[in-house]
Amino acid sequence: MKIVVCITGASGVIYAKKLLEVLKDKAEISLIISNSAKKIIKEELNIDWEELKKLATNYYENDDFFSPIASGSNKFDAVIVVPCSMKTLSAIANGYSANLIVRVCDIALKERRKLIIMPREMPLNSIHLENMLKLSNLGAVIMPPIPAFYHKPKSVEDIINFVVGRVLDILGIENNLFKRWGI
């Protein structure tokens, strides 16, 4: 499976890190990190963004429109934007492909490939909701990283594992990152 992971300038880069760690041996990963995300990675994870780059098969700068993944003829299976800033969500919803992250999402939409958007904002205003509805109507999966508590998490890692496990479920990748309902 070929998956493009996009990290944008919103809080919640821990979800992206965990997703990359889990996918490392399960998929070919192309990674794009926005400039704002590079700063947030340092702030929230206290690591250099280059550490996340090591978890990917390929890395592309967000302004690299000559990368292979900038073309619809390049076959990838899914795109995940985690976390997704409202700026990026708006650009995707409105077809404003000013950078590689939005271009790859545009390709996923036009080629009917799996697109998972993980918006990280609250509260949401009507513009945010309208953009999410527009993307959902176009086939994107809108998946805010909202944890559940029925599995009785005992740590922040348990909460992160739940969210990442649900993403893997949507991708069709078997995992046992969390205790499932009723099991």
TrEMBL record:
InterPro entries: Flavin_trans-like (IPR036551), Flavoprotein (IPR003382), UbiX-like (IPR004507)
Entry function: Flavin prenyltransferase that catalyzes the synthesis of the prenylated FMN cofactor (prenyl-FMN) for 4-hydroxy-3-polyprenylbenzoic acid decarboxylase UbiD. The prenyltransferase is metal-independent and links a dimethylallyl moiety from dimethylallyl monophosphate (DMAP) to the flavin N5 and C6 atoms of FMN.
Annotated HAMAP family: ubiX_pad (MF_01984)
Binding site for dimethylallyl phosphate: Y150, R166
Protein name as annotated: Flavin prenyltransferase UbiX
First-tier enzyme category under EC: transferase
Source organism of the structure: Methanocaldococcus fervens (strain DSM 4213 / JCM 15782 / AG86) (Methanococcus fervens)
Catalytic activity line of the entry: dimethylallyl phosphate + FMNH2 = prenylated FMNH2 + phosphate
